[in-house]
Amino acid sequence: MRYVDEAVVEKRMKSRVRNNSILKFIFLLSTLFGLIVLAVLLVRVFSQGIAWLDWDFITGRLSTDPARAGIMGAILGTSWLMLVVIPVTLFIGVGTAIYLELYAKPGRFQNFIATNISNLAGVPSIVYGLLGLTIFVRALDFGNVVLAGGLTLSLLVLPIVIVAAQESIRAVPNFLSEASYGMGATKWQTVKKIILPAALPGILTGSILALSRAIGETAPLTVIGIPALLIPFPGGLFDTFTALPMQIYYWTLDASLVAEYAYLAAATIIVLLVLLFLLNSVAIFIRNKFQQRY
Amino acid sequence: MSQKITVKLNDQVVKKTGRQEKKRAVFETNQLNLWYSDTHALKDINLSIKEKEVTAVIGPSGCGKSTYIKTLNRMVELVPGVRTTGEIKYKNRNILDRNFRVEDLRTQVGMVFQKPNPFPKSIYENIAYGPKIHGIKNKKILDEIVEKSLRGAYIWDEVKDRLNENAYGLSGGQQQRLCIARCLAVEPDVILMDEPTSALDPKSTLRIEELVQELREDYSIVIVTHNMQQAARISDKTAFFLNGEVIEFDETDKIFTNPKDSRTEDYISGRFG
Amino acid sequence: MAGNSDTNKNAVNVREMIAEKKKKKSLSNYTEKFIPTFLLLIASISLLTTVGIIITLFTEAIEFFKRVPVWEFFTGTVLKPMSQNPEFGVLPLINGTLISTFIAMLVAGPIGIMSAIYLSEYASDRVRRVLKPLLEILAGIPTIVYGFFAFTFVTPLIRSIFPEVGATNILSPGLVMGVMIIPMIASLSEDAMSSVPNSMREGAFALGATKLETTFKVVIPAALSGIISSFVLGISRAIGETMIVTIASGSSKNFTFDITQSMQTMTAYIVEVSSGDAPAGSTIYYSLYAVAATLFIFTLLMNILARYLSRKFREEY
């Protein structure tokens, strides 16, 4: 007697294969679902905002009158924030990564810092906002100025920069540092002249991605207390400011009062997305152009 | 196999015996022991390496030959958990002494690695790296050093028109000669070579071997190789390592024609390894 | 320059020059010793950040609990911070947070994992190379943009079908938050599935199993802890998400399970109170920190759990 009845197997096989094809199609649809929403979102934002996006809008000052409102102040505010975030995160992020990868002795302390960094990466951005409010705005008494906002955002994206820098440093092949030590170079000379230059493209790519995360952040800035309607342009680290996402936030909130504000918000979103797109293009360009093959 | 070697050797014997003279030792290794964590990798090594000679270190893989020459410039310390006992005297100072600055040692004892490892910089910058880290910044002097070193490694003619191009554009054999030139740039006393031709094709291998022959005039060379013919062709002395011990150390000709230890003979005649 | 006399002669004596320079190198010796300490100081900034967060949140939260009993805070179903007789029950906020997270995970969980299955098991290399970066774009859109989208597009869309839904409600931001989290779950689960060794798949294929059967009976069980870890991270992300719910769910502190109504999450409460002029030192000001500390503990636990799961997964392979 045979245990396997070929006729039954044959019959079942048909439905098994059919199930496979049906679900494959469903899986594909799921993957496309996110992209379809993305497309709808982009079409919606552009169709609402593009008509309001002109030179006067970009260079103009804020105003309660939708027809006259411009976002130069927010653009300058975001730029000032970047000017704080870039050097602060690069300096602390790369320094920390060098320490963890090249100087710290493997063991408890190194693990402790690594665990701590991954925990920090999971802390909600709003909590960083409270930290910034308590430390930078109040305890150090900066007030709700560029420096306080920039430092808060720096702490927020620091884990991203540290991890990216660690990975780039780890990717530098050992034989390069061996060659350098073999010439009688000291550790710091080797780090400075061989390891860091070789890791630089990766570090920059990671930092730019972190930067684009920072300039899209809204929650920490709302906590720090950015004024809703700020007419003067920020001109330094200790000036009050507004930023692109904050402007989107306020205009969206008030869209129920003045319908045109929704279009202003959409136009501002376009500016923010274009900025993010440019930053990411630069990151991809750096990654492709300067990647050394050994 | 072994017959072939002997035939080849006969030419060499004549060449080498012509210039026997009293030579000073550059490295005196006394009772050297080394552990990687719990593995006893080098056992009671005693070797005397003479100046302006080519000393070959041969043996099957895992016998400690690479570990030994990496101890000579203390590169072995880059592996965590390494311990040593005994001493290695370089110019009468024990280099295993904690107070001996490894940077000084490695400046005087250069190294060429198994796989060509130029820096991802221009050819010029590769050569100038050593002098620069040691504080030589004058552009004219650097130019001179670069040319001299590249000439010394017989690669000048091939690269003189593209000194500013990335070193990774060179072929494997050229890269290795560039690494030798980089090593020459700081004018070391000793050059350690860790299987420098194992990643290269036969033609490039031959060029490196010729280069080694030239360099022996000015430098003491210690070369690790898994290729016995290579050891026979280019070295004056040969040390045979097995399981972390020196089984035999003698004139290359003697090792290859008339080894004292049966294990050496077995290895040379290809019975294991 | 020390070497100048040498250049006059033909040969440059590098050895001598190096020896000469070495004598003057005490300064760089100093740097070499100082650098590790300096780097350690920089590295401890990340520790300081953690310490800063904990001290900030908990000292102020303790101040709050001196005025409002812990018990009352965690069991109170009424939150009326602005009223004459304020009540500080956090349950409405926790409820709002959990409901929005639940809705988000209903979207992101199934769609994320099905995308992961498609990318890891079905898609060709070429298709994957196109789809993955596109999904990453979705992850790179700032949350404020999602908030705008939820408020000005998704809510009106839902209301055109179900008119009883409020202009601010928890459903719409929950759904949009789900879309935002899809890429995260998809990419982390895909990583887990692709690292299941091929030999396991081949074993199933050789028995005549279809791709579908192989995926569900071999790949997913093998990658389970990695997949669950991605879910937990998704939940943590949803709990901490702020702008979408702040904009689209309004600020009613309802304690309800009706998803068509406006509810407030912990994050949205923090935004509302801190952007209003809560005078420092008032109970409402301190409540900010009590809520934030609760939020912090929620997400911290989730992250620790996720890390534990993914480490367990990595140990298996």
UniProtKB/TrEMBL annotation, chain A:
Top-level taxon in the UniProt lineage: Bacteria
InterPro entries noted in UniProt: MetI-like, MetI-like_sf, Phosphate_PstA
Domain ABC transmembrane type-1 residues, every copy: 75-282
Location in or out of the cell: Cell membrane
Cellular component terms per the entry's GO annotation: plasma membrane
One record GO biological process: phosphate ion transmembrane transport
Pfam families: BPD_transp_1
Keywords for the protein's UniProt record, in alphabetical order: Cell membrane, Membrane, Transmembrane, Transmembrane helix, Transport
Tagged with keyword Cell membrane: yes
Entry's Gene Ontology molecular function annotations: phosphate transmembrane transporter activity
Membrane topology reported for the UniProt record: Multi-pass membrane protein
Keyword rRNA processing: no
Stretches that traverse the bilayer: 21-47, 67-100, 112-136, 142-165, 261-286
Xref: CDD domains: TM_PBP2
PANTHER family from the UniProt entry: PHOSPHATE TRANSPORT SYSTEM PERMEASE PROTEIN PSTA, PHOSPHATE TRANSPORT SYSTEM PERMEASE PROTEIN PSTA-RELATED
Protein family according to the UniProt entry: Belongs to the binding-protein-dependent transport system permease family. CysTW subfamily.
Protein name from the UniProt record: Phosphate transport system permease protein PstA
Species name: Oceanobacillus indicireducens
TrEMBL record, chain B:
Coiled coil: none
GO biological process: phosphate ion transmembrane transport
GO molecular function, one term: phosphate transmembrane transporter activity
One Pfam family this sequence matches: ABC_tran
SMART domains: AAA
Keyword ATP-binding attached: yes
ABC transporter domain location: 27-268
Record's keyword terms, sorted: ATP-binding, Nucleotide-binding, Transport
Cellular component terms (Gene Ontology): membrane
Gene3D superfamilies for this protein: P-loop containing nucleotide triphosphate hydrolases
NCBIfam families: 3a0107s01c2
Name of this protein: Phosphate import ATP-binding protein PstB
Automatic annotation (TrEMBL), chain C:
Biological processes per GO annotation: phosphate ion transport
Example of a GO MF term: phosphate transmembrane transporter activity
Pfam families named in the record: BPD_transp_1
Family: Belongs to the binding-protein-dependent transport system permease family. CysTW subfamily.
Entry annotated with the keyword Isomerase: no
Keyword Transport: yes
Keyword entries, A-Z: Cell membrane, Membrane, Phosphate transport, Transmembrane, Transmembrane helix, Transport
Major subcellular site: membrane
SUPFAM superfamilies in the record: MetI-like (SSF161098)
Organism: Oceanobacillus indicireducens
GO cellular component: plasma membrane
Compartments reported by the entry: Cell membrane; Membrane
Superkingdom of this protein's organism: Bacteria
Protein name: Phosphate transport system permease protein
